[in-house]
């Protein structure tokens, strides 16, 4: 899931911020350090649930603390549901939801948000279109009214659409100039093939097709209450929250047309070798991985812990070998991203041209070691502490908890998963980590994607198979 990727990136940032300190204090630790303290699980949120007569699911978590209320409206059907000829067009629709409604201009929406101490954002990921908004608790009624207005009555004004199209075309140019973005696009195609998960980015055709009429039609087809969730978290009474939800969203009608479910993404490896030529590049951008599992798979938590040992933190095997021992890359890491219909696990390593082949050799050894080398007690304990600590830290933030709950619903997980996550991670054993290594980390099963200068690296790539030029 997307939140899992966020956890990994946060863990990486924390680890790298400590890197200089670690190097500066490479001395043995005192022998009589106290043991780790007892685990402090995330307090179980009291999630009150209700389904409105129109089918809208509502979750409410009253919470003390800042006088603030967070809302998240998630509607199933993201970029994976978009037509392949206009990939990610739903992201254009989402970014324009607050640019005008039947009764408000974009300026009026912005001014209203400012007057209630509010924030607003909307976007589309693979499986859902999501609106996230917050405001001072004293202005909760106005927040509900504003979110409902933008979600249910967007007008997609021609002027705002034209501006969004112009901005999107500029963004495409920036993306195409980024080797990191090129590498990720190629890896998604290597992992998912023709599955919709491989096309979560806009292209020129999708931008040009994003006319006001097309976006209105897409919105009307996609936004249906019986496939939507409203999460409400903050300093608000549950009765008031349900009352406001019913008042503002109860009149939302469904047209009865069902959106086809996304087909399961491939999970079996089909190792590919792809190169994205970038003449004159002085470094290679490497992606090394394969498709894996959906978030609802029982392997989700054991694989999260295993991936953390492999490359999810500063003391991980990838970082210690490729960064610390070999000095090939400053910030190598691995990432596991599980979604509703499938997922992927991959390493991201950017290295200078001269060590491209050597880095791939090291990656193969490290991946195979996950099956042949059981994690030490220190590795296992450290990984579980990192997984649990980042999770607990992040979900103390009210907006993050709101996003986590919505993300679980999108991915087909129950709301109580939020209270089980850390406890389940702490139950993972060394044997389970090795089992994940055998199932998902064998080097022979990993696809390799390299963005770089063929003239500088071709000879180094030959031992790893025949590389095809990737053409999107």
List the helices and strands and how they pair.
Layout: H1 2-17, H2 19-24, E1 48-51, E2 57-62, E3 68-76, H3 89-95, H4 106-115, E4 119-124, E5 128-136, H5 140-152, H6 158-176, H7 179-192, H8 204-209, H9 212-222, E6 228-234, H10 238-249, E7 273-277, E8 283-291, H11 300-311, H12 317-325, E9 333-338, E10 343-352, H13 356-372, H14 377-395, H15 398-410, H16 417-426, H17 430-440, E11 447-452, H18 454-461, E12 468-469
Parallel strand pairs: 2-6, 7-11, 7-12
Antiparallel strand pairs: 1-2, 3-5, 3-6, 4-5, 8-10, 8-11, 9-10
Helix pairs in contact: 1-14, 3-9, 5-10, 11-14, 11-17, 12-13, 13-17, 14-16
Give structural notes.
The chain is an alpha+beta fold and 472 residues long. The protein contains 18 helices and 12 strands. A 6-stranded mixed beta sheet has the order 1-2-6-3-5-4, sandwiched between helices. Strands 9-10-8-11-7-12 form a 6-stranded mixed beta sheet, with helices on both faces. A hairpin with a 5-residue loop joins strand 1 and strand 2. Helix 13 (356-372) crosses helix 17. It is globular and about 60 Å long. The two termini are 25 Å apart. The relative contact order is 0.17. The model is unreliable at 6-25 (pLDDT under 50). It comes from Frateuria flava. Keywords: Signal.
């Amino acid at each position: 899931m997307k939140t899992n990727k966020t956890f990994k990136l946060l863990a990486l940032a924390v680890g790298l911020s400590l890197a200089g300190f670690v190097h500066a204090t490479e001395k043995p630790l005192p022998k009589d350090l106290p043991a780790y303290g007892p685990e402090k699980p995330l307090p179980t949120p009291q999630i009150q649930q209700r389904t409105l007569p129109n089918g809208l699911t509502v979750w409410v978590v009253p919470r003390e603390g800042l006088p603030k209320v967070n809302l998240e409206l998630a509607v199933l059907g993201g970029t994976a549901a978009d037509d392949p000829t206009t990939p990610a067009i739903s992201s254009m629709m989402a970014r324009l939801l607050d640019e005008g409604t039947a009764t408000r201009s974009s300026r009026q929406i912005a001014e209203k948000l400012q007057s209630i101490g509010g924030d607003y954002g909307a976007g589309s990921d693979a499986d859902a279109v999501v609106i996230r908004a917050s405001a001072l608790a004293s202005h909760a009624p106005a927040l509900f009214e504003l979110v409902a207005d933008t979600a249910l009555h967007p007008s997609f004004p021609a002027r705002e659409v034209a501006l969004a199209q112009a901005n999107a075309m500029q963004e495409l140019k920036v993306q195409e100039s980024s080797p990191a973005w090129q590498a990720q696009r190629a890896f998604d195609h290597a992992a998912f093939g023709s599955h919709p998960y491989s096309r979560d980015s806009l292209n020129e055709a999708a931008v040009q097709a994003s006319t006001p009429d097309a976006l209105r039609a897409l919105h009307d087809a996609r936004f249906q209450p019986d496939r939507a969730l409203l999460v409400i978290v903050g300093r608000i009474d549950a009765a008031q929250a349900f009352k406001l939800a019913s008042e503002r969203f109860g009149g939302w009608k469904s047209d009865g047309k069902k959106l086809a479910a996304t087909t399961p993404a491939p999970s079996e490896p089909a190792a590919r070798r792809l190169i994205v030529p970038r003449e004159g590049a002085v470094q290679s951008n490497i992606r090394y991985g394969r498709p894996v599992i959906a978030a609802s798979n029982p392997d989700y938590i054991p694989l999260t812990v295993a991936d953390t040992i492999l490359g999810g933190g500063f003391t991980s095997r990838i970082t210690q070998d490729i960064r610390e021992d070999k000095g090939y890359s400053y910030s190598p890491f691995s990432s596991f991203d599980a979604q509703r219909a499938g997922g992927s696990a991959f390493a991201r390593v950017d290295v200078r041209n001269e060590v491209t082949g050597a880095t791939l050799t090291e990656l193969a050894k490290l991946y195979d070691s996950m099956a042949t080398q059981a994690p030490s007690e220190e590795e296992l304990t450290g990984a579980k502490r990192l997984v649990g600590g980042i999770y607990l830290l992040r979900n103390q933030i009210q907006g993050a908890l709101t996003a986590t709950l919505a993300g679980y619903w999108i991915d087909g997980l129950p709301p109580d998963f939020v209270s089980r996550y850390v406890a389940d991670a702490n139950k993972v054993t060394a044997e389970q980590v090795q089992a994940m290594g055998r199932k998902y980390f064998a080097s022979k099963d990993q696809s390799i994607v390299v963005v770089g200068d063929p003239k500088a690296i071709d000879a180094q790539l030959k031992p790893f198979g025949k590389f095809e030029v990737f053409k999107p």
